[in-house]
From TrEMBL:
<dbReference type="GO" id="GO:0006307">
    <property type="term" value="P:DNA alkylation repair"/>
</dbReference>
<dbReference type="InterPro" id="IPR027450">
    <property type="entry name" value="AlkB-like"/>
</dbReference>
<dbReference type="InterPro" id="IPR005123">
    <property type="entry name" value="Oxoglu/Fe-dep_dioxygenase_dom"/>
</dbReference>
<dbReference type="InterPro" id="IPR032854">
    <property type="entry name" value="ALKBH3"/>
</dbReference>
<dbReference type="Pfam" id="PF13532">
    <property type="entry name" value="2OG-FeII_Oxy_2"/>
</dbReference>
<dbReference type="GO" id="GO:0051213">
    <property type="term" value="F:dioxygenase activity"/>
</dbReference>
<protein>
    <submittedName>
        <fullName>DNA-N1-methyladenine dioxygenase</fullName>
    </submittedName>
</protein>
<keyword id="KW-0560">Oxidoreductase</keyword>
<dbReference type="InterPro" id="IPR037151">
    <property type="entry name" value="AlkB-like_sf"/>
</dbReference>
<keyword id="KW-0223">Dioxygenase</keyword>
<feature type="domain" description="Fe2OG dioxygenase">
    <location>
        <begin position="116"/>
        <end position="214"/>
    </location>
</feature>
């Protein structure tokens, strides 16, 4: 996955500088090659802006948006039960009912990132009010050393990636349709990621989270 021209920069640089570097990278790599956002002792985060072409991405979006039995969840917050502010679904990849779009996406990411993904978590952000709070993915559920890949479909949302250690600098990454964001296992120890609510109206977005889980676990 190392792109010959990929630049990396240090996660603890000032926020303004990081944002400027990301914009520079956008200009440098308009062709859409992988962009290494972090690559050091804290782990590796790589954005591949156009892993999936536009037509395929929108066909997959349509199929999943209409075809998945999306579930709303409840969770405890400050001792009250509230709705999880997005819809979700989950498949193990050996599920005979795995939708076609997920089978194709799975084949693509397994090949592109050379990891034996066996679990696909789906998130549907209906509009600008939906979000995921800052968190790291639970490492107890993921085989040690295996990455997480987030494939985005539909509207573009911004992900924030924040270092856990002070001064907790933040990267902001626009996740466009067809893009894939790889986060190495170690990054979950050092960063929280989130999709914040936004003021600006936005259409629905679906993310597919590919993980390698321990055998026998959901
Ligand atoms: O929607 C995304 O890209 C992020 C989803 C996420 O962080 C998760 O499912 O753990
Ligand atoms: Fe996550």
């Amino acid at each position: 996955m190392h792109h010959p021209h990929a630049r990396s920069f240090h996660p603890f640089l000032s926020r303004a500088l990081c944002v400027r570097l990301i914009m520079m990278q956008r200009n440098l790599f308009e062709a859409g090659g992988p962009q290494t956002l972090i690559d050091d002792a804290s782990g590796r985060i790589v954005l591949t802006p156009d892993l999936v072409d536009e037509g395929t991405a929108s066909a997959w979006f349509r199929q999943l948006y209409d075809g998945i039995a999306w579930k709303s969840g409840r969770r405890l917050m400050y001792e009250r039960e509230v709705d999880v502010p997005r819809l979700r679904a989950h498949f193990r990849t050996d599920d005979p009912a795995l939708p076609d779009a997920l089978r194709q996406a799975l084949d693509l990411v397994r090949t592109a990132f050379a990891a034996p993904f066996d679990s696909i978590g789906l998130n549907l952000y209906r509009d600008q009010h939906d979000s995921v709070a800052p968190h790291n993915d639970k490492l107890a559920d993921i085989v040690r050393g295996q990455p997480i890949v987030l494939l985005s479909l539909g509207a573009t949302r911004t992900m924030t990636i924040r270092a856990k250690q002070p001064p907790r600098h933040v990267l902001k990454v626009d996740l466009e349709a067809g893009s894939a964001l790889l986060m190495s296992w170690e990054t979950q120890l050092h960063y929280d990621h989130a999709i914040p609510k936004q003021r600006q109206p936005v259409g629905p977005r679906i993310s597919l989270a590919f993980r390698v889980r321990e055998a026998g676990e959901g």
